[in-house]
Amino acid sequence: MRSEFWKEGLLLLDGAMGTVLQQRGLPPGGIPELLNLTDPGLLTSIHREYIDAGSRVIYANTFGANRLKLEKTGKTVDEVVAAGVAAAKRAAAGTDARVALDVGPLGALLEPMGTLTFEQAYDLFREMAEAGTRAGADLAVIETMTDLYETKAALLAVKENTGLPVFVTMSFDRTGRTFTGCTVASMARTLEALGADAVGLNCSLGPDLLAPLLEELVRNTRLPVIAKPNAGLPDPADGHYDTDPEAFAAGLARCLDAGVTIVGGCCGTTPDYIRRLAALLRDRKPAARAYDTVSFVCSPVTPCRIDGVRIIGERVNPTGKKRLQQALLERDLDYILDVAVQQEDAGADILDVNVGFPGVDETELLPLVVKKLQSAVSLPLQLDSSNAAALEAALRVYNGKAAVNSVNGDPETLETVLPVVKKYGAAVVGLTLDKGGIPLTAEARVKIARRILEAARSYGIPDEDVWIDCLTLTASAQQNQAAETLRAVRRIREELGLQVVLGVSNISFGLPNRTLITENFLVQALGAGLTLPILNPNQREMTDAVAAFRVLSGEDRECRAFIARFSGAPAAQTAPAAPETLTLDDAVVRGLAAEAGRLARTALETETELELVERHLIPALDRVGADYEAGRAFLPQLLSAAQAAQAVFEVVRESIAKSGGTPVRKGRFVIATVQGDIHDIGKNIVKTVLENYGYEALDLGRDVAPETVLETVQREKIRLVGLSALMTTTLPAMEATIRLLHTLPEPPAVFVGGAVVTPEYAREMGADYYARDARESVEIARKVFGK
Amino acid sequence: MQPDIAETLRYLGVRGAPDEALRRDVEQAAAALAEQVQPQYTYRVFPAVPGPDGIVLAGAGMTLPGETAAKMLAECGRAALLLCTLGAPFETLLRACQARSMARAVVLDACGSALVEAGCAAAEREIAERFPGCWLTDRFSPGYGDLPLALQTSLCAALDAGRRLGVSVTESLLLNPTKTVTAVIGLAETPQAARIRGCGACALGDACAYRKGGGTCAV
To answer: Which residue in B91, B106, B131 is closest to A636 by CB distance?
Structure first.
């Protein structure tokens, strides 16, 4: 068994390396890791000063020694890391100090903020982790992280490729969030679940400002907690940090009182600070601490404590939904995102995500959908599949702590799915059924729940991460089972103390006035102890019932949420109310999406889908377009009309999906922001407008390589390509893309646009068209497709 | 801090008086944004000395080549490097908004541009207060005039922008998060003429669409 030195009493880390090097003459802006090769003696002497001051763990000078940062230096990760660890080991020789491989942020932002993928980040961290192990580091520290996603990539890379203990610290500002919006609770509970050995905070602030955040952190983890603050804040005139060793130690004393057991210093600290901390630790013992045991899932920005009723939105599930089935088969991720967004806005707390449908490769699609949803939805997700490989692929790229739906009492599913749940630190839903089917008594369901709980415990999954689904059967078919399910809910809540899940909508299947039955069942189940109803949050009756329940259960303190929900002013309308005589054309022109959708449904009673599009939709859009060109309407109005048109198109698509007819297709185009460019709002505007004229977009996103555009054009036989660039530095990439497309025997028409593109540039680059704005792109599409 | 409404409307391409509904939408979006995101900035002041290749900011490990820097900093013994950003939370908000309504997203995007400008103005005021007796030049940025865009990298490194504010510079010299502004501001001991702001200093001259319409872009 490896020595778990970080759990034994108090542990003193080292202080800053970077700012000490600057004090000793290193110019700012350089790559300090190159000193590992050019002046290792200097590093060894600084490490030695820290050890002499009392440090028992020293961080090797490898913070930025990743391939991205070293790329232009001609040095390899292996040699820089090896030299850095060696310099530290020379200082530690003959002492009991341990040497940590120091792993900092990569210096480029990950998707969806940046363009680096999770998988690329993992590889970059893996190289460092392997190099550190080879060099003989005793542990790894991942520090100064601000993006939970990047942190997860680093943690997985260390855990999967080394046997080293790993400490993880992130940087928070005084609002209690990282730069990317991650909360302390999300960070602590995600990283503990993923298997970090100690977690904490470093950099950004002095110890006085970090102390309240550390108190919160201690409540949210069972792991040893680390504090490595800055020596206060730097002076803008001379860069000098404002907290002296005495004040620094006083600030850290408060952190120790809160239960922190591992301490050190970050920017601005020196061996003097560490010496002072050593004196502070000498006569202290770890303080008592209290862990807040609670069921919990999260995204980085949205922690979800399950200490009351939490609504799980059920709509991302193709069962019985033709339009979603079509979207899954066509990989229309935008539609899936739209379904998710509506549920978030309607008050869901967690979203169930199920993409299982014949013809869909779940292992490939589920992770893509997870990434897409997490780019614009802040709620935690519940990944719904029985395919362990798909679950693993999706859990791996999930940002935060997810839930998995589901396992059941069958030993085979428990053995395949629970190890994945444990590895990625998810919560898991256990269905109270097994090979024998769904038991008809509450007694038998409780028995299966116990079996699932025991199995989860055997893998080290804590009880609060085990959620039991008592299963709702259809009242019209098995009427006596409604009461049996409620009994099972009550018993599992009372006897096992676990969270209880129920998909409530199923109760009313086959009955008239389904909403009434479902709502009644929901209320009774909540009364029996249901905490996690899976339902359709777009049904106002359901979320209203939950809001009322939260008042009666005492969860909604002082009825605040209820009062805000029902007694406030009616929600502000984004557009004035529509008059009685509103026509479909007017509704589109004025951007009234809901009205336009309703009027389109009525219109389809007397007109075909195609007539609707050609006679109403397109002329209405043209009217707005003409106003836009004349300076009577502006971009927001043009886009509002496009959105109303989208609502009409949605009605048309639904109608066609139902009747099994051929979709209205006027032509498909590829659209992309060119390689190196990360601005995509302009591209998205053009896409929105063209789509709502009936053209079909293949959106390749941003930072798109010329080769990707070429491949797509070839594979999909595309006749029109739109390229966007916002910066002069990315115009060459635009030109390169056009040049590559021109190598095709029959190149597609290319139109270009973006802030820095001019008609002259467009001509020089060989583009067929220059689009000044989204409106002009419509004229271009008409010319190319002839309609 | 709040985004300036007139400025936001200009970013949206609105000339003349906008209709009431649009103006109301912009005002609501601006207020909602300011509640959720505030600009964050950091700056450092370095001695600035003319050298053979440009103005040298030794403490920052930077040289500012070209005529723009020479002219702007001609009478300045020091220069401030400034970085102001709305950070990742704005990008997250904008992505979420684009998934819901592109019409609202373009308004939000314009509000963001105005808000980061408001942040720069606040930083300038703070610099002026912290260095009493100094006169500030107009702020100018890499990519303006002949000041190379390539300076983004060293400017961000000198301000430790990744660590301090979560800002990174991409291979193609874009700042990420995208609502980020970097700038140089000269500190002089004599009053400084406006060299960038105002129509007199603008390269567009009579070609400006706003002036043709009888107004100004208000920069």
So the answer is: B106
How many CB atoms are located within 10 Å of the residue A581 CB?
A: 6
Measure A674 CA to nearest chain B CA, in Å. 11
Q: Which two tokens stand for residue A627?
A: 């106003």
The answer to whether B43 contacts A635, with C-beta atoms less than 8 Å apart, is: no
The two structure tokens encoding residue B25: 């939408």
Q: Are A698 and A671 in contact (CB under 8 A)?
A: yes
B174 φ, ψ (degrees, to nearest 5): -90, 145
Using DSSP bridges, classify how beta strands A720-724 and A466-469 pair: parallel, antiparallel or unpaired.
Answer: unpaired
pLDDT, residue B109, reads: 96
Q: How far is B181 from chain A, CA to nearest CA, in Å?
A: 14
Rounded to a whole number, what is the largest CA-CA distance in chain A?
Answer: 90
Residue in B59, B102, B168 closest to A684 by CB: B102
- Best of B97, B130, B163 to disrupt the A interface (most A CBs within 10 Å) is B163
Over residues B89-116, mean pLDDT: 95
Question: Cβ of B173 and A729 within 8 Å?
Answer: yes
- Residue A376: which of B80, B95, B109 has the nearest Cβ? B95
- Contact check, Cβ <8 Å, A29/B107: no
CA distance A115 to chain B (A): 9
In percent, the amount of chain A with pLDDT more than 70 equals 97
Distance from CA of A774 to the nearest CA of B (A): 12
- Which of B61, B165, B168 lies nearest to residue A27, judging by beta carbons? B61
| Region of A54 on the Ramachandran plot (φ > 0 left; ψ -120 to 50 alpha; else beta) | left
CA distance B212 to chain A (A): 15
CA distance A508 to A518: 6
H-helix or E-strand spanning residue A344: helix A333-346
The confidence band for A575, taking pLDDT boundaries of 50, 70 and 90, is very low
User: If you write DSSP's letter for every residue of A425-493 in order, what string do you get?
Assistant: T-EEEEES-BTTB--SSHHHHHHHHHHHHHHHHHTT--GGGEEEE-----TTT-TTHHHHHHHHHHHII
Q: How far is CA A731 from CA A674, A676, A684, A738, in A?
A: 8, 9, 19, 11
Residue A1 has pLDDT above 70, yes or no: no
Q: Which two tokens stand for residue B99?
A: 């998934």
pLDDT value, residue B206: 62
Q: Which of A109, A588, A680 is the best mutation test for B, with the most CBs of B within 10 A?
A: A109
Is residue B159 very low, low, confident or very high in pLDDT (cuts 50, 70, 90)? very high
Query: Quick one: closest CA in A to B151, which residue?
Result: A29
Q: Do B92 and A301 touch (CB under 8 A)?
A: yes
SS3 assignment, position A401: strand
Q: Which residues of A touch B172 (CB under 8 A)?
A: 676-677, 727, 729-730, 733
Cβ A643–B94 below 8 Å, yes or no?
no
Q: Chain A: nearest CA to B194, how far in angstroms?
A: 25
Strands A98-103, A11-12: pairing is unpaired
A473-517 residue pLDDT tens: 999 999 999 999 999 999 999 999 999 999 999 999 999 999 999
- Spatial CA neighbour of A152 closest among A398, A371, A378, A394: A398
Q: What is the pLDDT at residue A576?
A: 47
Which of A678, A731, A756 to mutate to test binding with chain B, by most B CBs within 10 Å of its CB? A678
pLDDT tens for residues A371-401?
999 999 999 999 999 999 999 999 999 999 9
Contact B79, B189 (CB under 8 A): no
- As a whole number of angstroms, the distance between CA A244 and CA A232 comes to 8
Residue pair A187/A153 in contact (Cβ under 8 Å)? The answer is no
pLDDT-based confidence at residue A578 (cuts at 50, 70, 90): very low
ipTM surpassing 0.95, yes or no?
no
